[in-house]
Write a structure and sequence with these properties.
The structure holds two protein chains of two kinds.
Chain A: H1 2-24, H2 29-34, H3 41-52, H4 55-68, H5 71-102, H6 107-115, H7 119-150, H8 157-205, H9 209-219, H10 234-239, H11 246-249, H12 251-258, H13 265-294, H14 306-314, H15 317-352, H16 356-386, H17 391-415, H18 421-444, E1 457-458, E2 467-469, E3 474-476, H19 482-499, H20 505-512
Antiparallel strand pairs in A: 1-2, 2-3
Helix pairs in contact in A: 1-8, 1-15, 3-8, 3-12, 3-13, 3-15, 4-13, 4-15, 5-13, 6-7, 7-8, 7-15, 7-16, 7-17, 7-18, 8-13, 8-15, 8-16, 9-13, 12-15, 15-16, 17-18, 17-19, 18-19
Chain B: H1 2-15, H2 36-59
Helix pairs in contact in B: 1-2
Classes of the chains: A mainly alpha, B mainly alpha.
Chain lengths: 519, 76
């Protein structure tokens, strides 16, 4: 009961912050979506980090570590610690600059202006929303799981999802970007403290400390592999270094880049980002592995709840509640931005672009944005209830790979004068087609997929080892589909741009004429 | 020359992420409980932060700061 009360108090605080931000806000889209581009350096770091941390960072990472071992940290955390700050450094700063200069509030708005196109931008919008929705669902699922587990089942999964969805909606609906960022500051501090506190509490509660439990895992033939990467192929491991390219292509991340007051806000962010990733992922992965020895009765199907089970088993009730609130913070930090990002895109890229602002005015645009927030959250909630896919699989398959494969489009828009809208169109179609192809192959092989630990199986005998299936993923020559998706997207962008006419000289000069790129 | 060196530095940090030499071993346990593969990648995140600090110091795109000054502020 105590943990539930603590979490509910926390959720109430979040809702109050949203309403305070509502009173500070102005009724125009730039203020609602970007807080009038006024976010300072420290708030920017805390908020952009919260933007990227989902339920997956805590629950999914510990669950995957429980199943696959310590390799999960290198697979996802340390690769992100390098690639995400690099993309923020090279791409985020440029996005901020063109947003400030030309008033763009979304990526699609930039693409349309940069390549003198309209419907191609709409296509990119549709693909982006289709890939964003699973990410939003992951957040709601995470929230429902946390509330159910921490309450010992007192709060059902559907009710947990509903509570998180409602608080997120209130926060975004009322406070827009300002409310979201204020809440993010509290959330990021909470979930950054989460890892260290959880480690200390659980360490002191385990008889014999961590060493004994790690030695138990090492001594058991069935679990020894968890302390190495012997069941993880190097190709699979390397494939994952491309996944973090998706980060900057998620619309809510790009929109965050537009909201900074000064470009210098990015300096602190890119340096602190890797350390923040370590602070949150290292304890989660370690405790996930430790769960094998500390919770011997936990079934693999319950792996995503390993951390919550450890907290409820080893931490005092009030502290479990606070730590649960830390996990909820990670869930909601990203969810608020996803909802706001989707709303920003719909309002600016569809409603305003196709003449809605002329008909309904600036105030009408903000009202529409708020209505969209309600609708999109309701859809995400409904899908979260009927979906059975695990948090990890849903997010990676349908969102991360697709957004990573769209990164070459952004790089071309920002750095290559000769890039064209036809190149962007061809790359976008490639991403859509390969996403669909991966999904089809995944479904086709679901029933015959090998069990964890068994070797990958060939999908089409006549194609040899080109397409294979392991226990979790389709593989292309041993690599995850993200590899051909990204490389193909880049190649197609180049080929189609070279073969088609560039935008007008005036447009190219507008973006490249004044100053050379940084490095 | 500076650009080339920075490019090589980034490429080197990216390359050492693939630490095949730690793949199949858990020993030594760093601090008595962290398997070497996990400790290595924890240290890697610190190296990534140092790399970013070097980039901020030596390759910061200062020209992007121009819109902040009144003289170059864009027209509405």
């Amino acid at each position: 009961m105590i943990p539930v009360v603590v979490v509910l108090i926390y959720l109430a605080v979040i809702a109050v912050i949203g309403s305070v931000a509502f009173r500070r806000g102005r009724e125009n889209t730039e203020d609602f979506f970007l807080a009038s581009r006024s976010i300072g350096s420290m708030f920017f770091f805390l908020s952009i980090f919260a933007t990227n941390m989902t339920a997956f960072a805590i629950l999914g990472s510990s669950g995957q570590a429980f199943r696959q071992g310590i390799g999960i940290f290198g697979l996802m955390a340390s690769s992100s610690a390098l690639v995400i700050p690099l993309t923020i450094f090279f791409i985020g700063t440029r996005l901020w600059s063109i947003g400030k200069k030309f008033g763009h509030q979304t990526q699609v708005s930039f693409f349309r202006d940069r390549w003198e196109c309209s419907h191609i931008g709409t296509l990119i919008f549709i693909l982006t929303i289709c890939m964003l929705l699973p990410y939003m669902i992951v957040s709601l699922m995470g929230g429902g799981t946390v509330l159910r587990d921490i309450s010992g089942g007192m709060i059902s999964y559907p009710l947990g999802c509903a509570i998180v969805g409602l608080v997120v909606t209130l926060n975004v609906f009322l406070g827009g970007m300002r409310g979201t960022v204020w809440v993010n500051v509290l959330q990021t501090i909470m979930f950054l403290c989460f890892g260290a506190v959880a480690l200390m509490v659980i360490s002191s509660a385990l008889p014999g400390g961590f060493s004994d439990y790690i030695n138990k895992i090492a001594a058991n033939d069935k679990t020894r592999f968890l302390l190495t990467r012997e069941k993880m192929s190097p190709e699979y491991f390397w494939s994952y270094t491309l996944i973090p390219l998706s980060s900057i292509m998620f619309p809510h991340m790009a929109i965050m880049c537009f909201s900074a007051r000064k470009v210098t806000a990015f300096k602190r962010t890119v340096i602190l980002y890797p350390l923040a990733i370590m602070a949150i992922w290292l304890p989660c992965v370690f405790l996930g592995v430790l769960g094998h020895a500390a919770l011997p009765d936990l079934k693999p199907a319950e792996a995503d709840g390993v951390l919550l089970h450890m907290l409820t088993t080893y931490a005092p009730a009030w502290l479990a509640g606070l730590l649960g609130a830390g996990i909820i913070s990670a869930v909601m930090g990203s969810d608020t931005h996803q909802v706001l990002g989707a709303s920003t895109m719909f309002t600016k890229d569809i409603f305003v672009h196709y003449g809605g602002k002329e008909r309904f005015g600036e105030k009408g645009s903000v009202i529409l944005a708020r209505v969209f927030i309600l609708v999109i959250t309701a859809i995400a909630y409904w899908i979260a209830l009927i979906s059975t896919s695990s948090i990890f699989e849903l997010a990676v398959r349908f969102a991360f790979s697709g957004f990573a494969a769209m990164a070459p489009v952004m790089v071309a828009a920002l750095f290559w004068r000769r890039s064209t809208k036809w190149g962007a169109l061809a790359s976008t179609l490639w991403v859509a087609a390969t996403l669909f192809g991966s999904w089809y192959l995944q479904r086709l092989t679901e029933a015959t997929a090998p069990k964890p630990g068994q070797p990958a199986m060939v999908i089409f005998e006549s194609w040899g080892h080109l397409l294979e299936r392991n226990s979790a993923n389709v593989l292309v020559h041993g690599y995850l589909p993200v590899v051909p998706m990204v490389l193909g997207s880049a190649l197609i962008m180049i080929v189609f741009s070279v073969l088609t006419p560039p935008p007008s000289r005036a447009t190219v000069d507008k973006y490249f004429g004044a100053a050379p790129a940084g490095i | 020359m500076k650009k080339l060196l920075l490019f090589l530095l980034i490429a080197a940090v990216y390359a050492v992420h693939q630490d095949i030499w730690n793949w199949r071993k858990s020993d030594p346990l760093i601090l008595g409980f962290l398997p070497i593969g996990l400790a290595y990648h924890a240290a890697y995140t610190v190296v990534a932060a140092i790399l970013m600090a070097i980039l901020v110091k030596t390759a910061w795109p200062a020209h992007l700061e121009e819109p902040e000054t009144p003289a170059t502020k864009p027209k509405p």
